[in-house]
Automatic annotation (TrEMBL):
Enzyme Commission (EC) number: 2.7.11.1
GO molecular function: ATP binding; protein serine/threonine kinase activity
Catalytic activity: L-threonyl-[protein] + ATP = O-phospho-L-threonyl-[protein] + ADP + H(+); L-seryl-[protein] + ATP = O-phospho-L-seryl-[protein] + ADP + H(+)
Protein name: non-specific serine/threonine protein kinase
Family membership noted in the UniProt record: Belongs to the protein kinase superfamily.
Sequence positions that bind ATP: K95
Biological source species: Tolypocladium capitatum
Keyword Chaperone: no
GO cellular component terms attached to this protein's record: cytoplasm; nucleus
């Protein structure tokens, strides 16, 4: 007999391969989707059902994603009235935020989408206009424990993280060599969007990761077919706290390799984005732990070049089966794994050499410079200085790294090159090193990266690519 987790895996496998099924009832003690987070509180989430109509026009079809502070539902747009900047589409994705997500974050995301829309309207024909997920509408829905902000977005196929699973070597997390030209084309597309964000919009994304790059659908009828199939293939579910919790349909099915060239990567999730053209230095912590730039860790101030570092480390993850930086250590007291800024700096040192003294010396005085508003770290502690958030100082008065014992030898980019890039290792290393530099001002810009020989458009394309079904579960 299958255990609860295997039951859910089997249900999702049957859904991907169009095997008819009745709704799977999930055991009450099995954690599903957003419940997996240690910070999950069911009172903060909205718990809608298929068929519910939001804002008198959006009929919910199925849950298709989730995160720490939101769930995402596919919906059918039943009406055409709305704001002037709304472009009607038959289906849309609705991001339903938790009721405790700060309204400041939601408003910031809407402002960023509006800034992008205005910039795009002035750049008719610019290739980057299609490099961002469109925001279509916003409104609130009431819940028993408070209102939930909803953001209506164009429907997308899946995150780049999911597509990567289809492009890897079987039983491996590394990209299949035949798919390198295809992925390099995606990289060019993302860079076009990043260049547009920086130069035409004055926006720093600050949260680039494979889950925040979404792929467009390969054929227009895909989503409609998926929506029509929901009566035959309903979501797995369970009852808890007086509401129904659904397991998301995380895939629209297999991808036809002949149509993969129609898929376009688009940058999404601008809730943490910041303007880069302000008068005051940007100091507060940003970026996913694995992708954090050294100037963020040191508190010396960050700008557009932090996105370039972030992009480089994310790109390594796209090709490789391992992380570029292993930044986790075991807590000596609790035994739990936690992020370590000292380990992160040590690993950067391994790959790039020691930090320049002129870069780390200012960090001594910046450690206690306060930012507002205060933010919480990963453990919930309120912080308003770099030292509060990351610890430190990690360098002495002479600029020497205090944790030199963490630095190993013989750990360069060349030694850990993804196998799929063996034939172009020199060019790829050059491309990576133009992004991964201690000094922010010495990093290449997104525009300069588009001109790098490794991204020559002649070597890109989907011919010969290999796409396999998603791994089971």
């Amino acid at each position: 007999m299958l255990d609860p987790r295997a039951l859910l895996d089997e249900y999702r496998r049957r859904r991907r391969h169009d095997l008819p099924s009745l709704p799977q009832i999930i055991p009450a003690d099995m954690l599903v989707d957003e419940e997996i987070s240690a910070r999950y509180d069911w009172r903060t989430f909205c718990h809608p059902n298929p068929g519910d109509v939001f804002n008198q026009r959006y009929k919910l079809v199925a849950k298709i994603g989730w995160g720490l502070t939101s769930t995402v539902w596919l919906a059918q747009d039943k009406g055409r009235h709305g704001r002037l900047w709304f472009r009607s589409k038959k289906y849309c994705a609705i991001k339903i935020s938790t009721n405790n997500r700060t309204e400041q974050t939601a408003i910031n995301e809407i402002k960023m989408f509006n800034t992008i829309a205005v910039a795009c309207s002035k750049k008719e024909g610019h290739p980057a206009r299609k490099r961002f997920v469109d925001a279509l509408d916003t409104f609130f829905v009431d819940g028993p424990y408070g209102p939930h902000r909803c953001l209506v977005l164009e429907p997308m196929r899946e995150p780049l993280m999911t597509l990567k699973m289809r492009l890897t070597v079987p039983c491996s997390g590394e990209l299949h060599p035949s798919n390198v030209p295809l992925v390099k084309g995606y990289i060019r597309g993302i860079l076009e969007g990043l260049e547009f964000l920086h130069t035409s919009c004055g926006i720093i994304h600050t949260d680039l990761k494979l889950d925040n790059i979404l792929m467009s659908v390969e054929r227009g009828s895909l989503i409609e077919h998926f929506a029509d199939s929901q009566s035959a293939y309903p979501m797995a579910r369970k009852e808890c706290h007086g509401h129904t919790l659904y397991a998301a349909h995380t895939s629209y099915g297999d991808i036809d390799a002949r149509l993969v060239a129609n898929m376009v990567p688009k940058i999404a999730d601008f809730g943490l984005a910041r303007r880069g053209d302000g008068a005051h230095p940007l100091l507060h912590p940003i970026q996913p732990n694995l992708f954090r730039a050294p100037e963020v860790l040191l508190g010396t101030g960050w700008s557009y070049s932090a996105d370039v570092w972030n992009f480089g480390t994310m790109m390594w993850e796209l090709f490789s089966d391992r992380e570029l930086f292993s930044v986790w250590v075991e807590d000596e007291v609790s035994g739990a794994t936690r992020y370590s800024a000292a380990m992160h700096l040590a690993q950067i040192t391994e790959r790039l050499g020691p930090a320049p003294r002129h870069l780390v010396r200012p960090s001594m005085s910046m450690l206690t410079r306060r930012w507002q508003p205060a933010i919480r770290d990963g453990e919930g502690k309120v912080c308003n200085t770099v030292r509060d958030y990351f610890g430190g100082p990690y360098y002495d008065a002479d600029g020497n790294f205090k944790h030199a014992g963490m630095v190993r030898t013989n750990s360069s980019l060349r030694h850990e090159m993804p196998r799929c890039l063996a034939a172009e290792a020199y060019e790829f290393e050059s491309f990576m090193r133009s992004m991964l530099r201690w000094q922010p001002r010495r990093r290449a810009t997104a525009r300069q990266l588009l001109g790098h020989a490794w991204l020559d458009p002649k070597g890109l394309g989907s011919a010969g690519c290999r796409i396999r079904p998603l791994p089971r579960g």
